Amino acid sequence: MVFNENLYMIGSTLLVLGYTCATVRGSDSFTYESNNKKTSEPACYGSTYTSFVSLSCPQPEVVYPLEVYVGAKPNSTGCLDFENDYTEHDKDLKEKCCRNINETTDCTGEYNGPNRTLIIETCMGLSLCKNIHVVWESTSNMSCSAEHHYKSTTNYAYLDYFCIKKATIGTPVRNHRYQSRNSGMFYLTANDINSYKSGMLDRNVTCSITASTNLSTIEVWIMDLRFRRESLQKVIIYDGSTGKQLGGSNHTRPFLQPISSSSSINITFETVRSSDEFLWLGFAANDAYIVIACDVSDGTQITGDVEPLSQEKKQNGYMVAGIAGGIGFLAVCVIIGFMVYRRIKANKTNRKVEDDRRNLPKNEDTPGMNNVSNNVKELQ
C-alpha cells in the first residue's frame, strides 16, 4: 500500500510539473531576499516554560520562514539537562546556553522532524510569530565534532527567515497591474497578504508576466504551495503553447518551477475558496524588471514596488495637513462671521425703518407726497 502510494506521488509529480529531466534549484539558490535574511534569537529546549522562539519583521513586512535549526552545546559549557530549569541564579549560564550560537564549538544542523512543517506553516505570512515551541533532535543523528562531547539531545533551537516587503506582494485580481523594482522579485499570493492565513479565494483570472526586455528570462518560484491531494484548485502556467498545472507536491521552501527560457508567460487562476490551501508565487527576470497584468483594461494604473513613507516624512505630512486644515478652518470661520455680521446689520436697519414709520403722526403724509399728488393732478 505504501509502495503504491509512493508511486502515485512520484508519477503525479512528474505529470503535473511536466518535466522528466531538469536542473531544479532549491532554497539555497534563492538569493533575491538575501539582504532581508534574519536569524531569530535561540531558545532552550526543556522545562523552561517561558522559553520560546519568536520571529518578527518591521511593518510593513511579513515573515517568510526558511529553516528550523537545532543546536547542542559541548558538555564542558555546563548547560543544564532539559529536565532542569534555569533559575534566577543561573542568568549568566542561561544566557550562554540559550541565547548564543557558537558556530565553532556548537553542534548545529537543520531540523527536519515532523514539527518543522507546523512551525513553517504557522509563521508564514505573519508580521509577528511568537511562542514557537522549541524542538529537539538526537545528537547521534547529527554530524557533531569529535573534538567535543555533547549531551544526547540538542538543547536549543532557532530559525532563519526573510522579512519580505508587502509592497512587493500582489494578488491576482482583474484590472490590476504590478511592476517589480529593477531586477528584484515580485510576488503573487492567492489571497491578499494581510489575509494570507484565510487560504484560497474564488478567482477566475489570467495574469501575464512579461520581462522588460526580450533578452531576459523569467523565473517562477514556488514560495508556498499547499494543496490537498484531491484539490479543486487549478493554477496553470502557460509557457508558449505548453501548460503546466501546479500541484501534486507541496512546497514550503523556495522551489524553482522549471519552464522554458521565455521573456513572457501567462498564469491562469481558476481557484475556489478553501481555508486550508495556500499559494505564494514569486517572479523575477535576469537584468530586467517584470510587469504583471491581470485581465487589465485600458487605463489601468501600475502598482509598483514603492517604498513606504519614513516616520519623519509621515510626521512632516501630518504637520502640513494640520496647518492647512487650521488655515481652512479659520477661513470658514471668517466667512461665517462676516455673513452673520451682514445679517445682523440688515436686521437692525429694517427694524429702524419700521420704528420710524410707527412714530409718524396719524393722517400725516410722508414728506413730499403732497407735492407729488398735486403734480399728478395738474398733468391730468
UniProtKB/TrEMBL annotation:
Residues 351-365 have a biased composition (Basic and acidic residues). Keywords: Membrane, Signal, Transmembrane, Transmembrane helix. Residues 1-26 form the signal peptide. Residues 368-380 have a biased composition (Polar residues). The keyword Ligase does not apply. Residues 351-380 are annotated as: Disordered. The chain crosses the membrane at residues 318-341. It comes from Magallana gigas (Pacific oyster). This is CUB domain-containing protein.
